Amino acid sequence: MNIVKLSYKNIATKPLQTFLTVLILSLSIGLLLGVKQLNKVFESQLQQSLNGVDMVVGAKGSPLQLVLSAVLHIDNPTGNISFTEAKKIAKGRYIEEAIPISIGDNYKGYKLVGTTLGFIDLHKTSLENGKVFEKPFEVILGNAVAKNLNLKVGDTFNSAHGMIENALESHDENPLKVVGILKSTQNVIDRLIVTNLESIWHMHEHENSSEVHNHEDDEITALLVKFSNKMGLLRLPRMINKDTQFQAALPKYELDKLFQFTAIATKSITWIAFAILFVSGISMFVSLYRMVKERAKELALVRTYGASRNTLIKLVFSQGFIIGMFSYIIGVLLAFFGIQAVFTSVKNTYKQQIYLLEFPQDILELLLFIFGIIIIATLMAIRPIFKMDISKILSNEN
């Protein structure tokens, strides 16, 4: 007896019921896998992008906006601050390192960041080829920028004013020259164009780079701060917010608050997926149970031809296994293509390439869970087999 072939025929006799069971189960699998993966990937991406930045100092406004703009580069800045005053804060006793950044321009949607070479070290990367910038209007490209725009060392381009791609106002009088390309980090710096602060200042002042200029009154967007000890965390943010015209924001604290808000939506979708999965488990049980009850005569005949009770149990389990595995494969495919669609949207919007994180492990964990549902549904459905009275079923066949 070919149990798998017989199970397939039993499934084929109930196409609508089988379709609904597979649909519900695959949707729940896709939701569970997709939500778990997206939550894991985005949280990992955001946490990795902090790169040890303990505090961000910038203009007054929303602290979360300051963190998103200065650290993650996915929002507009809250404003500018005096570079001279910022340097005074950078000399504080609790500060190990303070890196100034100035943003406000872009090239084809990729943000131009004026900073120091410490910014590159902060992101734990190095040059793949070329050299570091040494004078104004020399830039280093993040790996994704170079690949997506097909730029190489020696190329030149003109940046545009503002944070929006295809901005009308461009800095045609100050072309930027590519002098280096960074190694890939799969992090925020991959989608940035890095130059020195003087480049940003000159472009915004419409001055020639050869002129001598006093930058005492120039401004920056923010100061990225690393503390030398924990006392800085306890004292500096409160002092800056209270006694200066600046704002101090703690990236980890702000992102934790953001995760708390997003966790509500994530948990809601997860519970909905579990509810759908529970319903699909019941649907599978009903399908298997009805098969056993409606085909009692056929199963009894199979027993008379020498098949054991275990054979009938295998038949029911095989039917549940086929439905479950088919649903599982469809659910994984739904999750994969859904996640890729989200990643593509993020790439187009924020110019950030995102990759799957521990996806095979999530697939295996969910496979074991689905296998458990199949076993439970089968155990509940085979009860009539143990109570089967073969002689009574066959005597009442007419």
Outline the structure in words.
The chain has 398 residues and is an alpha+beta fold. The chain has two domains: 3-46 and 265-395, no CATH class; 55-249, no CATH class. The chain contains 14 helices and 13 strands. A hairpin with a 2-residue loop joins strand 3 and strand 4 (110-115). Helix 3 (63-72) crosses helix 9 (251-294). The radius of gyration is 31 Å and the shape is elongated. The protein starts with a helix and ends with a helix. The model is unreliable at 207-212 (pLDDT under 50).
Main sheet record:
11 strands, mixed
Average predicted confidence as pLDDT: 85
The helix/strand order is HHEHEHEEHEEHEEEEHEEHEHHHHHH
Structural domains: how many: 2
- Roughly how many Å is the radius of gyration? 31 Å
Number of discrete helical segments:
14
Number of strands: 13
Quaternary state of this entry equals: single chain
Outline the low-pLDDT stretches.
207-212
Provide the β-strand percentage band: 15-25%
Backbone structural class = alpha+beta
**Global geometry:** elongated
Helix percentage:
55-70%
